[in-house]
């Protein structure tokens, strides 16, 4: 009931991060374009394969954006849909199953609802069947006004590969839709080409594959390179349509593309053993935030997808002080270096807890558990609080009682 929420609320109040004055509202009245980059891990950024850059466009783009290089995905079995859940709610997805399927009937206080209340036309764009991951139902619960899905795109054999429509035509046709949207709009675009099993048409292979015994890893670099090119064309399209200067652009990797089953090839590529520490560090995904008129900056705070909602809403000038959320604003000075992965691993400024051991990030060796211990309880507690909210559908009580409304206290 509501009393359970009160305890959780205290925890959340205590960890609230005050927004940075300069960044709060910097995107006010601008459009918000979010791009979920399929299976993109951070280890390819600024790296080469066979002497060629894997992400030449993103390497440039991060130079003129805020780039977070210690940002972790926090997804589990719900994959893309888990990342979407984190983005919209700043709650953790579930450890089993996909919350998009299991709890789509819950009451949520989503980022999308906040954007609606602040005059945004809220949309999602993904050239796939609308019911995949139960998106059509869940997007209604989260408050999206319009979901551009398969019927909104011209999908042909020629412009498809692997799971469906290629990223380049997807972006091209999406820009056409954006031109028609009432302004300001927000959109979440979900890419698809860089998806397992990472297959491409010959003409889209812009670099040679990696050479190991693992075809999945070998091809991954090529499909990442393709997505990078598609993103480059997308930004060009936004510039040509005049939307670029009027939009905040947020790009993030949704989850890993290379699972632990590929440690042998990954170890060959990285030139070191994939220990539980290295494996955890591979869960970093790029987060790139482009604000027109702002210079590029790399921010190395430890953070995760749980932080997206408050960070983005604050940029758009929308307060989150009263929200039930576990993340914090990444531009806040108060943001702590701490990320909890859904399976209980966690990362601090200097340590990683993984494989039931504590690891020193600098030496990459195992260290005394006493360095991780102080964070361990918090990690467990935070995941449990988040689970309680979902399993108990607790946000419905929050709506009803409004016990934190200042006027009523
Ligand atoms: C499907 C796309 C891919 O619509 O989101 O799903 P994933 O397997 O990455 O969760
Ligand atoms: Mn995905």
TrEMBL record:
Instruction: Please report the stretch or stretches of sequence annotated as the Sulfatase N-terminal domain.
Output: 30-318
Where is this protein found? Cell membrane
Which residue stretches, if any, does this entry annotate as coiled coil?
A: none
Membrane topology, from the record: Multi-pass membrane protein
GO MF term (any one):
transferase activity
Task: Give, as one word, the top-level EC class.
Answer: transferase
Alphabetic keyword roster: Cell membrane, Membrane, Transferase, Transmembrane, Transmembrane helix
- Recorded E.C. number(s)? 2.7.8.-
Q: At the top level of its lineage, which domain of life is listed?
A: Bacteria
Q: Which family does it belong to?
A: Belongs to the LTA synthase family.
- What this protein is called in its record is LTA synthase family protein
* Species assigned in the record: Rossellomorea oryzaecorticis
Complete-protein stretch covered: 217 to 625 of 625
């Amino acid at each position: 009931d509501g009393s359970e929420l009160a305890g959780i609320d205290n925890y959340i109040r205590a960890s609230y991060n005050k927004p940075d004055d300069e960044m709060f509202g910097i995107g006010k009245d601008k459009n918000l374009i979010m791009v979920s980059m399929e299976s993109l891990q951070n280890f390819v950024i600024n790296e080469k394969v066979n002497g060629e850059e894997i992400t030449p466009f993103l390497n440039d783009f991060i130079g003129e954006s805020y780039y977070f290089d210690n940002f972790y995905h926090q997804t589990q079995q719900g994959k893309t849909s888990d990342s979407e859940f984190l983005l919209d709610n700043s709650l953790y997805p579930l450890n089993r199953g996909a919350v998009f399927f299991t709890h789509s009937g819950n009451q949520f206080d989503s980022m999308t609802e906040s954007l609606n209340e602040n005059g945004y036309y809220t949309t999602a764009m993904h050239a796939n069947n609308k019911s995949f991951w139960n998106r059509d139902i869940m997007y209604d619960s989260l408050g999206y006004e319009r979901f551009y899905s398969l019927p909104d795109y011209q999908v042909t054999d020629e412009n498809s590969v692997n799971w469906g429509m290629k990223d380049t035509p997807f972006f091209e046709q999406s820009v056409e839709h954006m031109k028609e949207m009432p302004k300001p709009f927000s959109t979440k675009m979900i890419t698809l080409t860089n998806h397992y099993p990472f297959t491409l048409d010959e003409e889209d292979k812009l670099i040679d594959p990696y050479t190991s015994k693992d075809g999945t890893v070998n091809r991954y670099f090529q499909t990442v390179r393709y997505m990078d090119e598609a993103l480059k064309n997308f930004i060009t399209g936004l510039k040509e349509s005049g939307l670029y200067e009027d939009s905040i652009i947020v790009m993030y990797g949704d989850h890993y593309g290379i699972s632990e089953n590929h440690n042998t090839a990954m170890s060959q590529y990285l030139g070191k053993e994939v220990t539980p520490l290295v494996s955890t560090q591979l869960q970093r995904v790029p987060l790139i935030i482009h604000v027109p008129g702002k210079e590029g900056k790399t921010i190395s705070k430890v953070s995760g997808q749980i932080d997206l909602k408050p960070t983005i809403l604050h940029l758009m000038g929308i307060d989150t002080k009263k929200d039930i959320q576990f993340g914090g604003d990444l531009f806040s000075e108060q943001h702590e270096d701490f990320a909890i992965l859904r399976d209980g691993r966690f990362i601090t400024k200097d340590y990683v807890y993984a494989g039931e051991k504590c690891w020193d990030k600098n030496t990459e060796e195992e260290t005394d558990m006493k360095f991780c211990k102080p964070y361990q309880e918090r990690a467990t507690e935070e995941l449990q609080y988040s689970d309680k909210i979902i399993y108990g559908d607790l946000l419905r009580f929050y709506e009803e009682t409004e016990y934190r409304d200042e006027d009523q206290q």
